[in-house]
Amino acid sequence: MSGPLHGIKVIEMTSVVLGPWACQLLADMGADVVKIEQPRGDSNRSLGAATNPGMAALYLTCNRNKRSIVLDLRQPGARDALLALVKDADVFVHNNRPQVMTKLGLDYSDMKKINPRIIYCGAYGYSKHGPYGTLGALDDSIQAVSGVAALNEMVLGEPRYLPTVVADKTTAITVVYGVLAALFHRERTGEGQELEVPMFETMVNFVMAEHLWGMTFEPPKGKPGYTRLMSHHRKPYKTLDGYIAILPYLDAHWEKFCRLTGHPELIDDAQFRTLADRVRNIDATYSKTGEIMATRTTADWLKIFDKSGVPLIVVNRLEDLVNDPHLVATGFWQFQDHPTEGRLRMPKFPVNFGSTPADIRRHAPRLGEHTEEVLREAGVSDDAIAALTANGAAMTAEQAAATVAKGGD
């Protein structure tokens, strides 16, 4: 059964996590994704555990279901080869600064001339329409400028980055829904368009959904920052033998929590009577909850709250996730036998489509594994392909491996 994007062709010119993960999501849903790489390949090819050079863990987790082609855009003929791929493509995604794409002659105006139906998506640090538009950006810098690091300062006393590339991945998801909306528009009108997905604006939109708070109003009715999330006490609760996560959030949850823990007197306590009261007195709410949870074991609490409807769950460490009983039962972890890298564990695409399921069809490609195949499909003649690979404008997997081994770029 084909995924919902079967028949959609995506040309990807991205690296690191944002672009590759976004395009992997499109690929998981059935799109034919062609990944254009420089001779040295995506920088993530060297990050993490690896069996072979250029096939490290971070690359493998962001690049399945794709084909790889190497084009050196500094060499004559490479740009024309790329544009040949674009002629029948539906989507083009890049994560270079727009000034770079203009210099390469690969901005939207260039591609629209040869394919008016193209959905052209640029995902980079800052909108080209503002004063930050020429700045480079990576996840850390966007966490800093968007307020994410400052959220930790409000709680921990110093600005800290979240230990996940939240800006990259949030922007990647935004790329996916932006591309899908543009494809839907094109389906109705036949019109392609340019999309800009700036990381800064995406993350400010993400952060301030709840944290605009008192500054929602003009003039402001208070400071920004969702009160409940700013408490030092907001963390998993210690039990007699470990930790547990519980949030008796709604009034019905709180009443059940108080009765099941043997503290019915807290139901009518003025500090905790309603959700608004508990948020207003959030430190006291969290402290009281913590005192109660510390009196029993994790297993005891799981049994007591079973089928209560009160949100409660164990605290998983990263290594626990691979054996989590729910993830095992739902088949979330899937295994793939890679032709060069051996058996790999992969997370399943999270959306369960009833009629057009997403799946893992292709292994993450070796650098340049599909160069000749993809160019041939684009109508480039065998003689022209031979000329491109001879002058270094394009590279096969063997040529790319030799270049990387020599330390070239």
Report on this model:
The protein is of the alpha/beta class. The protein has helices at 18-28, 57-60, 78-86, 98-104, 108-114, 139-145, 148-156, 166-189, 199-211, 251-260, 275-280, 282-293, 298-304, 325-329, 371-377, 382-391, 397-405, and strands at 9-13, 32-37, 66-71, 91-94, 119-124, 193-198, 237-238, 243-246, 312-314, 333-338, 342-347, 394-395. The model has no long low-confidence stretch (mean pLDDT 94). The longest helix has 24 residues, at 166-189. The chain starts with 8 loop residues before the first strand and ends with a helix.
State the total count of DSSP E strands: 12
Radius of gyration: 25 Å
Helical segment tally?
A: 17
Q: Low-confidence segments, ≥5 residues, pLDDT <50?
A: none
Backbone shape: elongated
Distance between the termini: 40 Å
Q: Main sheet: which strands, in order across?
A: 6-5-4-1-2-3-12
Helix content: 25-40%
Order of helices and strands: EHEHEHEHHEHHHEHEEHHHHEHEEHHEH
Task: Note the quaternary state here.
Answer: single chain
Largest sheet: 7 strands, mixed
Summarize the entry for a quick read.
With 409 residues, the protein is of the alpha/beta class. It is built from 17 helices and 12 strands.
Secondary structure blueprint with pairings:
Blueprint (H helix, E strand, L loop, with lengths): L8 E5 L4 H11 L3 E6 L19 H4 L5 E6 L6 H9 L4 E4 L3 H7 L3 H7 L4 E6 L14 H7 L2 H9 L9 H24 L3 E6 H13 L25 E2 L4 E4 L4 H10 L14 H6 L1 H12 L4 H7 L7 E3 L10 H5 L3 E6 L3 E6 L23 H7 L4 H10 L2 E2 L1 H9 L4
